[in-house]
Amino acid sequence: MKSCCHTSRQKEKLLKVQVLTHLAEIIRDEKIRLGRPVKSVVIHRDGRCFQSEMDGAAAAIDKLKSEGVVAADGTLTILEISKSAPVRLRLFEVQRARGSKLFVQNPQVGLYTINRNEGFLCSTGRAFTRRGTVQPLHVRCVLEGIPFVQALEDAYALTTLAWTRPEDCSRYPVTIKLTDRWLGEEASEFDEEALLYEIEENDDKDGDERASA
Fold first, then answer.
1. Which domain, by its residues, includes 139?
2. Does residue 194 fall inside a structural domain?
3. % residues pLDDT > 90 (the chain)
4. Do 74 and 137 fall into the same domain?
5. Of 15, 98, 128, 205, which sits with the fewest C-beta atoms within 10 Å of its C-beta?
């Protein structure tokens, strides 16, 4: 797996040309690695995917198809993966013990439900010794290339890559986890630099005020 990091002046919504340029770069490298044209591309968007981003991704696929980098019948799928769902959904499993007593338990990891273009996936579950109620991951398919259920299965497979704790599980796919980690490191560096400059500016202002007094 290869990851590429690029900075942007846009806080949330990326420009069409940005997505086109960087996505084309990634897919060209992937074609070289595979040794054949790319058949399917799936984008995991942390949160909402804006129209300019979808337009840029579609333009990149069209351009790469004309170059032979993406197969002529290649597909593009875009998933929005939300850290918190506007409507919370709880999945559970009911089991009957010996006799007639019923027990309500957390669902088993991997359980999912799909309603048209929206799905809820239990990327954590009863197989792991974690306390509390399972919070299903909300995944929305805004552009379907491969079948949504197949894209959801792929997202689940990426949640199992809990590299820092192989014996544990992860609620988010590694695609989202890596992005969060990189953004966290960038934000920390930015805050330290901003603090340094703010201190220097304040010292200069204090010096000017003392001089004028």
1. 83-172
2. no
3. 46
4. no
5. 98
- CA 97, CA 77: separation in Å to the nearest integer? 43
Distance CA 64, CA 58 (A): 10
88 and 157, same domain (yes or no): yes
Indicate the residue type of 79. L
Give the span between the Cα atoms of 124 and 70, in whole angstroms. 34
Cα torsion 98, 104, 109, 111: sign? positive
Q: What is the pLDDT of residues 91-124, one digit of tens each?
A: 888 877 777 788 888 888 888 999 999 999 988 8
Is the same domain home to 72 and 90? no
Report how far apart the first and last C-alpha atoms of the chain are (Å, whole number). Answer: 62
- At residue 205, the pLDDT reads 47
Q: What is the pLDDT of residues 18-42, one digit of tens each?
A: 999 999 999 999 999 999 999 999 9
Return the SS3 of 71. Answer: strand
187 domain residue, yes or no: no
Quote the CA–CA distance of 108 and 122 in Å, as a whole number: 7
Q: Which of 44, 78, 112 is the last residue of a domain?
A: 78
Give the pTM.
Answer: 0.77
**pLDDT tops 60 at residue 187:** no
Tokens for 27?
Answer: 């897919």
Residues 29 and 71 in one domain: yes
Residues 118 and 50 in one domain: no
Q: Are strands 38-46 and 118-121 parallel, antiparallel or unpaired?
A: unpaired
Mean pLDDT of the chain: 82
